[in-house]
Amino acid sequence: MKRAVLAMLLVATPVLAANPVNDGVYQLYASGRYDEAMRFGETSNSASGLAIAARAALADAMMRAKPCLECLKRAEDFARGSIAADAAQADAHVWLATALGYEARIVGLVRARLEDDPGKAKAELDAALKAEPDNAYALAALGGWNIEIVRAGGQHLGKWLYGASEGAGLALFEKAAKAAPDNVAVRFQIGLALAGFAPRRYPTRIESHLEAAIHAAPRTAYEKFIQGHAQELLTVFKKNNSDALEALVHDYQGYPD
């Protein structure tokens, strides 16, 4: 099963210190050498290096044919290590929220609710935006969080349980797109979330975000992979086949069969 990012959502180019080790780790990630990026990121013992390791672990998980809970737990561990080293490492908070979101889809909504995974993910995204208010990936992920809560529980229950709303999600999506208009992952994430939530209510927005993802210049091997998803999703969306669209969104959002 193919999947792409959220909840979260893979969502951000990390802000790295001027550190040749971390620069090298990022280049390993960008080129798709995820095992090496994880290994060197972990041994760097730095917040940014561990954040890149988390990002690599998520990319590896998303590009697998089937959901991989173990892979997501590995990303979660790297992200937690990064945050322990530097609580202001915004991208690590985003990766942790992303891992929790995908894990929840694998273990099921009941267990995720009992363990308060939605609340934990929200706390991480709030921390990311506190550290970097214009972080496009955190903005997109928090927008997706609002949309998914409303999608799962409805407007009233989502508002009552978590303070989530459709309006807040849409506003965050707009802020994310303005912050990173040419970012493949951000634009795909928004288009995917809306396609799963209300495809007939937001057709123009969905097409606009997916077109942007398709035509932007990919900066990493993962973004190039995501462009293929964006093209396939847009093609299915334009065919007006609701069953096919639902199946593809289910696949790309990381739900098990």
Sequence of secondary-structure elements: HHHHHHHHHHHHH
Backbone structural class: mainly alpha
CATH architecture: Alpha Horseshoe
Q: Please mark out the parts with pLDDT under 50 across 5 or more consecutive residues, or reply none.
A: 1-18
**Helical content, roughly?**
over 70%
Looking at this structure, what is the CATH superfamily? Tetratricopeptide repeat domain
CATH topology (level 3) name: Serine Threonine Protein Phosphatase 5, Tetratricopeptide repeat
- The level 1 CATH classification is Mainly Alpha
* Distance between the ends: 8 Å
* Beta-strand content: under 5%
Secondary structure tally: strands? 0
Number of helical regions: 13
Number of domains: 1
Biggest beta sheet attributes: none
The backbone outline, from C-alpha atoms, is globular
Give Rg in angstroms.
17 Å
Short synopsis of the structure:
This protein has 257 residues and is mostly helical. The chain has helices at 20-30, 34-43, 47-62, 69-85, 90-107, 109-114, 117-131, 136-162, 166-179, 184-197, 203-215, 221-238, 242-252.
